[in-house]
């Protein structure tokens, strides 16, 4: 037994050394490359944990893996326990390899928003013949249903009395895919708005760096009310982001109005998150087209307000290719001429002091999916909660994360990232 223990410890040690070696040799940014420089250079990468995703175990591990992969920012729910989980993951990663710290961003909303809702239904009300399509379609494994008949057989009865389980609220992030597939129309969505006072207190913590406000853009009065409520805490931030959908011809006017509201108390850079197709990056190649089209429209106008542009909504492994085809990838803003040259961006990032037209990309559902399947495998096989205690799984998860983050960061392609 002692021999097996020593062999096990040696195996873990070697696996962790492989993690350290991969990070050091592939070219992950160090302290010399700040998140703000990434925004300027057009190679900013943000991990979206989810404005409503509150599974602190997964969030900790995701933050650990993507910190090692070199992201510039980690966006999470405006909840104290979630923020603590993100920072714990970051600090564990930095103990493994001394990387610079990514910014921690919290997300709030000014009104009803798809990102701030949870699915809800009564599992005991589900019919006995339900095939449970909601459980199958959920990308977050946030629905778990078990027939109560099975659980009660030991008590001498086979009578069906519905299901037990239901929605795991901490895992549900509001994508809504379960709602239309329910054959009995039993599922509804519960929406909420983050508390302004609680958000202001979170911002004042020394482990929160940035804020993101989700807005529909159609009415700016709720935005002003939220901004005014946060006024005293804004000075603590390094970045303020506004996430908004494409609302057509009124988009630019709405952005300008919101910027005029922010500007008097804005003491840091601001960013516009272009949410092309919300919460759909894990669906496939086509999901990224809307956000690229949105970026093209924004980049082509001189009337938009000050601030970096960043893609989100439908972003995945195909997004950078789409940006290159559109002539937007890491292209200096001074050179943007509303033309599309598929080849001019292939050589690498520009050597220009001008900021890039598109500052970077935020990855949400797709980023969580490719690492999440390894986290699920680890938990089912090992039963462990901390991925660093299982370095083989950490190495696999890191390779997945690097394969995505590296499309923006230009990591050394000679390094093997075979999955």
Automatic annotation (TrEMBL):
Offer an example of a GO molecular function term for this protein: 4 iron, 4 sulfur cluster binding
| Residue ranges of every copy of the 4Fe-4S ferredoxin-type domain listed in the record | 117-148, 163-192
Q: What is this protein called?
A: 4Fe-4S ferredoxin-type domain-containing protein
Question: Keywords assigned by UniProt?
Answer: 4Fe-4S, Iron, Iron-sulfur, Metal-binding
Pfam families tied to this protein: LdpA_C, LdpA_Fe-S-bd
Could you tell me which PROSITE patterns the record lists for this protein?
4FE4S_FER_1, 4FE4S_FER_2
Query: Could you confirm whether the keyword Transport appears in this record?
Result: no
Gene3D superfamilies per the UniProt record, alphabetical: 3.30.70.3270
Record keyword 4Fe-4S present: yes
């Amino acid at each position: 037994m002692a021999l097996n223990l020593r062999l096990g410890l040696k195996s873990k040690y070697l696996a962790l050394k492989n993690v350290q070696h991969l990070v050091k040799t592939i070219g992950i940014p160090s302290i010399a490359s700040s998140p703000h420089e990434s925004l300027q250079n057009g190679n900013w990468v943000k991990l979206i944990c989810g404005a409503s995703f509150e599974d602190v175990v997964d969030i900790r591990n995701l933050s650990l893996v993507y910190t090692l992969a070199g992201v510039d920012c980690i966006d999470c729910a405006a909840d104290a326990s979630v923020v603590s989980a993100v920072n714990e993951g970051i600090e564990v990663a930095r103990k493994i390899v001394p990387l610079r710290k990514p910014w921690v961003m919290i997300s709030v909303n000014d009104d009803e928003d798809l990102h701030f809702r949870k699915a809800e239904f009564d599992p005991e009300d589900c019919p006995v013949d339900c095939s449970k399509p909601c459980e199958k379609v959920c990308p977050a494994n946030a629905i778990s249903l078990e027939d109560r008949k099975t659980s009660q057989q030991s008590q001498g009865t086979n009578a069906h009395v519905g299901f037990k389980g239901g929605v795991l609220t901490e895992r549900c992030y509001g994508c809504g895919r379960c709602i239309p597939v329910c054959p009995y129309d039993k599922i509804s969505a519960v929406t909420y708005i983050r508390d302004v006072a609680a958000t202001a207190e979170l911002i004042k913590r020394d482990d929160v760096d940035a804020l993101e406000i989700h807005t529909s853009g159609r009415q700016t009065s709720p935005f002003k009310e939220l901004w005014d409520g946060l006024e005293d805490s804004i000075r603590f931030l390094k970045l303020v982001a506004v996430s908004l959908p494409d609302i057509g011809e009124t988009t630019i006017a709405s952005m300008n109005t919101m910027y005029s509201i922010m500007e008097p108390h804005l003491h840091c850079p601001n960013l516009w998150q272009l949410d092309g197709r919300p919460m759909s990056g894990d669906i496939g190649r086509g999901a990224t087209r809307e956000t690229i089209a949105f970026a093209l429209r924004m980049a082509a106008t001189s009337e938009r307000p000050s601030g970096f542009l960043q893609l989100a909504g439908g972003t995945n492994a195909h997004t950078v290719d789409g940006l290159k085809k559109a002539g937007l990838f890491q292209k200096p803003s001074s050179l943007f001429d509303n033309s599309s040259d598929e080849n001019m961006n292939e050589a690498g990032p520009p050597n220009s002091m001008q900021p890039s037209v598109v500052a970077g990309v935020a990855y949400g559902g797709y980023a969580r999916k490719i690492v999440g399947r390894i986290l699920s495998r680890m938990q089912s096989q090992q039963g462990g909660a901390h991925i660093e205690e299982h370095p083989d799984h950490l190495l696999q998860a890191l390779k997945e994360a690097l394969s995505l983050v590296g499309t923006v960061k230009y990591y050394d392609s000679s390094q093997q990232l075979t999955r």
